[in-house]
């Protein structure tokens, strides 16, 4: 993920902003009886995750899904796969695994949520539901230049989305957040329709760190800078997630990206170790029996 990349990450103030005042109100200020936590990478292919797969691995997804409990399925952004492909992915993965597929670019970037997207969305979901109970939260990522002038399209999309399928939305144009009236209208729309407000933590885009949850799911897309600061940033996230868990978060979906993706499994493994220690989760640590884990100690 090149979004928000910088040449000198050591010059960036990575301090997590304070929560939006309404975030804890959404969480209802009471401890979670149960909090489901999903951590994964953005891709599973061997070309990107160099060094992650043992020599002789025949099926990358089958191996990946036994190391992690989830995947941010970015491949669906580039093409709409047929139902049979989703069914194959379902069959290859264990019972507790979840897929978090991105909506296709024709919906978000080409048609830009216009009325013409309805049959495309229907076709996409017709295929995606073949993941059955392994379908996590579908997510929409809008183009950087999609601005609040088209807010009515967002309203129509949010209100027409099938409520039985969880949805998260990500907005990258800074005017969604620096105009308080626009931001409040957006947050209220997402809350009213039980849509998660994606938080993107990227070095070069600190302006969109809104820290505003709109339901009991925290959907975080974390973009490392391939820099030592990546680990301290994750430590800060663990503390924030711990706070949210104490105040009622019911699900955490945390996906780790890197500009050089081969480091994503290492960074994810570090995060999982911290979550297990601080939040009391019992997530498998990827490749825990390999020498690479020693680098995290």
UniProtKB/TrEMBL annotation:
<dbReference type="Pfam" id="PF01904">
    <property type="entry name" value="DUF72"/>
</dbReference>
<protein>
    <submittedName>
        <fullName>DUF72 domain-containing protein</fullName>
    </submittedName>
</protein>
<dbReference type="InterPro" id="IPR002763">
    <property type="entry name" value="DUF72"/>
</dbReference>
<dbReference type="InterPro" id="IPR036520">
    <property type="entry name" value="UPF0759_sf"/>
</dbReference>
